[in-house]
Amino acid sequence: MGLLSSLEFETSGTALNEQARKLGYEGARTLCDAAEDGEAVASAAYTHSAAHIAWKIADVAALLGVTRVALGGSVGLRPGYLARVRESLAHFPERYRPEVIHAELGADAGLIGAALWAGREATVT
Known about the structure:
Elements: H1 7-11, H2 13-22, H3 28-36, H4 40-64, E1 68-71, H5 73-76, H6 79-89, E2 99-102, H7 109-124
Parallel strand pairs: 1-2
């Protein structure tokens, strides 16, 4: 069994950036662009990342029964990435395939969530 790590360390923009550099790309953005243009090496790394996310989405659906998952972040908001996540998720039984969409708040979703949480915490204490 391999080492366990968080999803952030395996599929985030930062993780894909590191993978991109190992493969000879400037960074995650250039790897994603190359993958979406059909470049084989970049496409394999991009698809691997999307398949990993799909696997975790299926796990969460099985465990918690979620019916919708929103992807955000620099990689998750790319249309090509969402399509690959959906393609990978299609290999799982239907009950483990929630709807996958882009986060409605886009790249600012995490920042907005943190601000709302901080505001609530300030009111409670």
